[in-house]
Amino acid sequence: MSEVRSHPSTASHGGGSAGMPSSGGGFGGGHGHEMPLSRLHSDDALKVVKVARHWVGRDFHAGQEAQCAAFVRAVFAEAHVPIGNAHNPSDRSLLPNANDLGPGYADSFAGNDVGAKVSRAEVKPGDIVMYLNTYGNFRPGVITHVAIYVGDGRVVHRPTRSRPVSLDPVDLFRIGEIRRPSTYKTRVAATTGSVKCFVHDMEAAAFLNGAKASIADVRIHVRNGHIETTVNGRTVDPVSLSLQLFY
Description:
Elements lengths: L36 H4 L2 H12 L13 H11 L36 E4 L9 E5 L10 E9 L2 E4 L8 E4 L5 E7 L13 E6 L2 E6 L2 E3 L4 E6 L2 E6 L2 E3 L11
Antiparallel strand pairs: 1-6, 2-3, 2-6, 3-4, 4-5, 7-8, 8-9, 10-11, 11-12
């Protein structure tokens, strides 16, 4: 059975040498294909995915009960990415002892102080996936297991005391909720808008969302095969981009 309840003092850091993160694949069956990770997420999310995948096949506190939450926190610590602790987890009213809370529990990720909820269809690598009623006699709806989504419809998690860290399908148990840690810095600051720049007879003009702008600092960078653009210091995700140069 899956395990959940542990104590924060049991978390440890470590490295590994398993496979590198994959950049493609759909989410489960028939949900299309994900874009390359570097296109979707911040560097923080990519580091978490890389560390999680490195742990696959390695023991994490072998022989000890309830280490799933400790493993997730150890991955974030090894990636040097801070992760919060839900002080009022979403399943708190269902717990037999509402004071039995802390960063060693799987539901310690189930709060807005950790990150915003995302739907199953919106999941991205680095998101935290929480599962319901994977063991014990808890009331229906109690979060009892946690994992890290790493792409390709898979999660990395610490399953039981007798098994090493595993790479498994995201639907291995009933999903309770998925959270995207607020610590991730999203690269895309705006999703709609347009900018057009014109230069004629040594004079330049720019139009932002159809209105002439007195200041328009438009920068375009190509890094690792991906285009990054900023408009007046704000990072934007170009839906389309055209450039014509006459001289």
